[in-house]
Amino acid sequence: MSPDPSEFKSEESLDESNKDSLDSTSSLLSEIDPKTDPLIYAQNLQTQVGTIGFDWKNPQQALPKLYEELEEVSQALNEQGKQHLQEELGDLIFSVINLIRISGYEASAILESANSKFVRRFNRLELIAQEEKRNISKMALEDLETLWQVAKIQDSIKKED
Q: Measured between alpha carbons, how far is 12 from 24 in angstroms, rounded to an integer?
């Protein structure tokens, strides 16, 4: 799906110094250290190209690209080609990072928070299983998913307190 050019920031929104950089012989992206953590590097790349208007105006406009990348991952899964799947997964992650950035968040902070939430909920799942005298390593995926949903509900209630 090709984006509508009107969905991108207008040239008028660019400042004069950014317009001048379009004429320079060095790449706009050469200013970004590729040795940076990949998550931060991706966000920095997207921020940098945004300075010349290669950016969505708002998060809602970035969503179709995310859906497009997800569909490409789905197709790559069906093709059984590991290299192609790896590329499409990378594109999906890149698009998610872009949505995070456009929404005004830092990708690293979002992922750190998600990791903490996962650990908290999994610990709760383990506690529930222990209280029920169940061994999680011997449980079926469906049973684990049920406990996971209970842990999520308990976690949400605890957050409201």
A: 20
